[in-house]
Amino acid sequence: MFFRHRRRTEKKPATLVGGADPMDDPMDIHITQPDLEAKLTQSAAQQGRHPDELVQDVLAQYFDEETRFVAAVKRGDASLRRGEYLTHEEVGERLKRFLQPSQ
């Protein structure tokens, strides 16, 4: 299964496209795993959406999360370089205090 963006006459967001002008540079996405294709088709149908719209949303969410994760790793690395970190023992002590029932 693959999805190809088709030129539309009305103004709507382009789907599954690359390049500067999405209407001139379509992108094909080939799904070669039958179980993945079935999940995509079923999920899109349950949501009342077209599969290419769902793929675009899933990809956008993936890249948003990847950006967030990379930024968090960079913040952690910067903290480590500044000497701002907890030892294994300190983490264990904080967890013990956190998990103790309040009195």
Structure description:
- Helices cover 55% and strands 4% of the residues.
- The chain has 103 residues and is mainly alpha-helical.
- The chain has one domain.
- Strands 1-2 form a two-stranded antiparallel ribbon.
- Helix 1 crosses helix 2.
- The chain is elongated, with a radius of gyration of 22 Å.
- The N and C termini lie far apart (59 Å).
- 3% of the residues are buried.
Low-confidence segments: 5-15
Structural class: mainly alpha
Number of strands: 2
Radius of gyration: 22 Å
Question: Keywords for this structure?
Answer:
mainly alpha, two-stranded antiparallel sheet
Present the secondary structure layout.
Elements: E1 2-3, E2 29-30, H1 34-47, H2 51-81, H3 88-99
Antiparallel strand pairs: 1-2
Helix pairs in contact: 1-2
Short description:
55% of the residues lie in helices and 4% in strands. The chain has helices at residues 34-47, 51-81, 88-99, and strands at residues 2-3, 29-30.
